[in-house]
Amino acid sequence: MASDKGRIHAATDKERIQAADTGDEEASIGTFPIQVQEMLLVNDLLSVLIGIDGKYLRIKVTSGEAGLAIRPDPTLDLSLADLVDRILPLTHYYVRVVRMIDLRHKYEFGLVNHALCAALREVLREYLILVAQLEHQMSLGHLSLQKLWFFVQPAMQTLKALYNLVLDIEADSRSKPERGSTTTLRGGMLLNVLHAHAVAAGGEQHTTKLLSFVLQESAVPYLAMLHSWLHEGLVHDPYAEFMIEERPNRPYYDDSYWEKRYVKRDKHVASFLADKDVVEKILNTGKYLTVLRECGEAKTVGLPVAADGLAVAADGLAHHDASAQDAATGQAGRVGPGVLSYSSNTRVYAQLVHEAYTASSHRVLDLLVKQKQLLHRLHSVKRYFLLEQGDWLVHFLDLAHEELSKDAAQASKTRIESMLALALVTAASGDQERDNVSCSLVASSALEEVLYVISIDGSDRASKSRHLSQAGAGGGTGGALTGYDAFTLTYKVDWPVNIVFSRKTMTKYRWLFRHLFLYKVPCPFYALSSSLCPVACGVRVASCLAGCQTLGGLVTFGAGVQLPVKP
């Protein structure tokens, strides 16, 4: 009997709506009884809530901030109009979110924007399911305007949070446009906006879970790039969204390879990775893996099994549908083999990055020390450039004194190289690195070279230049440049040792050698009278002292490369 009454009531409501629809199109809703007005409004609202015009509720696009306006019929009953005004903001929220999805799902907005749009669609799908359920209730005659307001209140909170998020993304896009691009926020910059919203909503559990879910899903492409960088030393970033930028076409022998092949994009550093030490470790970890890969050690690239027993594979990122609660409470991070997900707890990332950094650093150090004989090369450079053992120098000066005493333009570089090789074979026969040592004749004295660097540096230029000029920047007596003044050593290094012995580093070694060499050589003015020789030697010694004092402020070894630390 009750079911029969329900069917009769539903049929009556349908008849009322159909009668209103088939009536005069110009009739105002206020001409109908309140019960019919309510049924007509419920029918219209279920269409308007998904952005479709109703008969008595029309959506009008405007140029204002809201973007649309919905004005109910002024003849509507006031009590019903009040409920309608409470429900209509849902339409504003829904239409604005859909508009952003339609814009940002295009390929040029990048992978993070695509993931964000997919997450928003997932939330809106639940909203559309709710509207469909309400339509079913209306068809059964069980849905009143008051019940409709009750059922949509949770969705109101959800869509309002998404609406505010969309407004902030659009505002930041206008205030921080990317250089050379008309598109808006992308990559790490977009994740920072999402992260800021998730942190700001910390007091509202429902909003926090929602925004954490959106952030976790949006961060999947970014974390996939991070995974690839930490495990393979590769940058898969077709839309320039990642915190590491690769600048290809830099050969190994280029001194800028280590510093400029991979550089940070500070604007795309995610705020949950913003710890300075973590960012530097991320940058260096990928660089170390690049060294291993380009040295043919690709089979060793990847991380070992972690201490907690979770194996971390190096074959890409597997998406894992971790719950939004885990993301909000910081329990995400690594959720399974080969999986990396968002976590609000920055210590999770610090641990993961430290594991990757330790493993890659250990392998690069083994490569340099065991296979490339780094320590032996360091000792060799110390022996020749810093004159740790002077036996080879004594032999060389005995052989090349006559040639080095000539003017630099007249001295034969080929003969000097042959004499140097003979001296090294005689005095350093057991050193395998002696074949990498050669010599050259530069066109300026040691102090003139330092003066040139000071002029580039620009710091305290006047006082330093005046001090060196008074000390005798010409080297010797201020006459023509001799072979002694122009002589310097060179050292041949190959990849990957040249990331340690870079061109900049070897230049500093050369500066030190040239000044130390001037101390060791015999007085080139031995042919002068005994009264002039001490004067000339004094000028040379003063010149050397001035140069060494200046080099003390200029030379800093190891600049531009961070040696891996063995754990």
Structure, briefly:
By secondary structure, this protein is mainly alpha-helical. Helix content is 57%, strand content 5%. The protein has three domains: 2-200, no CATH class; 224-371, no CATH class; 374-554, no CATH class.
Structure commentary:
The chain has three domains: 2-200, no CATH class; 224-371, no CATH class; 374-554, no CATH class. It is 57% helix and 5% strand. It has 21 helices and six strands. The protein has helices at residues 2-21, 34-48, 78-87, 89-104, 111-139, 145-175, 187-200, 205-218, 220-232, 257-260, 276-294, 324-329, 346-371, 374-385, 391-404, 413-427, 446-457, 461-471, 483-486, 503-520, 533-554, and strands spanning 57-61, 68-72, 244-246, 262-264, 437-441, 487-491. The strands form three sheets. A two-stranded antiparallel sheet has the order 1-2. A two-stranded antiparallel ribbon has the order 3-4. A two-stranded antiparallel ribbon has the order 5-6. A hairpin with a 6-residue loop joins strand 1 (57-61) and strand 2. The longest helix has 31 residues, at 145-175. The protein is rod-shaped, with a radius of gyration of 38 Å.
